[in-house]
Amino acid sequence: MNTKDMEIEVLSNEEKRECRRQRRVRNQRRAYISLVISVLVLVAVVLGGLFFVNRQLNLEQQISEQPMEEIEVIEEEIIEEVSTLPEEEETIEEAEEVYSDEKLLDEVVEAVISEMTLEEKVAGLFVVTPEGITGVSTAVQAGDGTKAVLEKYPVGGFIYFKKNIESEDQIKKMIENTISYNKYPMFIAVDEEGGKVTRLADVLGLNNVGPMADIGATGDSTKAYDAMKNVGTYLKDYGFNVDFAPVADVLTNAENASIGNRSFGNDANLVAGMVTMAMNGLKDADVTACIKHFPGLGDASADTHNGLAVIDKSLDELKEIELIPFISAIENGADMIMVGHMSLPQIIGDNTPATMSKEVISDLLRSELGFNGVVITDAMNMGAITEYYSADEAAIRALKAGADMVLMPEDFTLAYEGVIAAVKDGTISEERINNSLKRVFRIKYADSVGE
């Protein structure tokens, strides 16, 4: 069943309009009552002699020991008008909660998840390359093969690279077809940071906004906003809805070649401002920003693409530098954060990668920093993972640690089947899967209940 044809338990356009109409009625009533009280106060001030029994204004208070005739007339007329307004069973506060967009979104998400099989739920927590699920060497179109695998594995998203992009019409058509084949909305993701990490700009002859280090050097965070608003605008035009950017790593180790000029710089506060503005630029282009690589790879000497990187710092030391940009992004409404594969022995207690660490994801990112959005792993086909863990073990450990989505497992089928088996044998609870899917779907279905 196609996503756009699904008759999920969501509100129809007429129902959403009715909800908005009722909110307007409540707002008009509130405004009218406020005006009423304001008129009474103004009249009382002009005519004098008006004293209240207590500080709370209401229409039943005594206006003075000797009410003036003019005030009595106005009060009676206003009370009569107010009494003719429609009555509601709920208070204004209760009604606002019932009809709020947040409430509606929760209902949409719950309705969708309630109809899903376990297999569909687990598939929805993976973001893969088209090659990783279809088995082709290089995917440049989405046809019957893509349709067949998405019917079997309705994954949470696809990530595309330069090899998948040949022309504007080609990438648009491939994405359009891919989305139409999936039963549920998909994240269509890309690494489009600017500078040396771009997948579209150079191939399609677009404006490369340049390395973030150059923008950071200006000290002007509006340039970060403008750059990523530009990036987000062309991504949205081609069909992408997630950008794995901006990089929030503070470059405290000048020898760190894997981050290098992808970082805004070595000043944590400057990086924080730049990251937040870059995130907002993407958001204003209707593209979800994914802030990376939590809790910070800027001090690493090794490249996690090739092997394990160790950050030998305490939590207090991380709070002084590395965590500052992430905290800023969270406070300003970040929707998605990518966790890196670095090891933090002073925090974790061993060399477990952060992507598989409860101490990093659940305790630090969730509980201490208060992040309620989607947590996605860095690519699980990197050497930091594949040298030590099988695809299924890595995926299971990441989800148990608190990650919501697993990016690019080395072997998707093995990882997918491993997670299903883990749920069935109680290693991972289905509630744990549902909670992650709720966070994912809150992003995907947000537009369905918007104004």
Notes on the structure:
Strands 7-6-5-4-3-2-1-8 form an eight-stranded parallel beta sheet. The model is unreliable at 1-13, 23-71 and 85-89 (pLDDT under 50). It folds into two domains: 13-98, no CATH class; 117-449, TIM Barrel (Alpha-Beta Barrel), CATH 3.20.20.300. 50% of the residues lie in helices and 7% in strands. Strand 2 (157-160), helix 8 and strand 3 (187-190) form a beta-alpha-beta unit. The protein has 451 residues and is α/β, with parallel strands linked by helices.
SSE order? HHHHHEHHEHEHHHEHEHHEHHEHHEHH
Taken from the alpha-carbon principal axes, the silhouette is globular
- Count the strands? 8
Report, as a whole number of angstroms, the end-to-end distance.
27 Å
Main features:
single chain, about 450 residues, alpha/beta, TIM Barrel, 2 domains, 8-stranded parallel β-sheet, 20 helices, about 50% helix, disordered N terminus
List the helices and strands and how they pair.
Blueprint: H1 13-47, H2 69-83, H3 92-98, H4 101-114, H5 118-123, E1 126-128, H6 130-134, H7 144-152, E2 157-160, H8 168-181, E3 187-190, H9 201-204, H10 212-218, H11 221-238, E4 242-243, H12 268-284, E5 288-294, H13 315-320, H14 323-331, E6 336-339, H15 345-348, H16 358-368, E7 374-377, H17 383-386, H18 391-401, E8 406-407, H19 412-424, H20 430-444
Parallel strand pairs: 1-2, 1-8, 2-3, 3-4, 4-5, 5-6, 6-7
Helix pairs in contact: 1-2, 4-20, 11-12, 12-14, 18-19
